[in-house]
User: What shape does this take?
Amino acid sequence: MPTLKSRRDFLAADRGMRIVTPAFILLVQPNACGAARAGFTASRRLGPHVQRNRARRRLRELARLLKAEAVAGADHVFIARPAVLDRPFPVLLADGRRALAAARRRLGA
Assistant: This one.
């Protein structure tokens, strides 16, 4: 899944649907390019750079494993929450599946 790079894309996704899980917040917004794209962010509230980088790595792996379940033609932004660092990966994967299923239901995709 291609990644979002520009600030404009992240801000556009912020106007979309918001799905909250214990480990991350998923923003989903239909895009003009027609392909599913993903972006990852972790604020300084999460901790020092080592923890923020680890959180983003875990979210990138989550998106890689769930790219087949992503909403086609939409931007997905994963915002890390503190629980992403401690949550077992199989539970994180289940959270991701539930969040993407909710996004598909809400968008009717």
Notes: The first helix runs from residue 7 to 14.
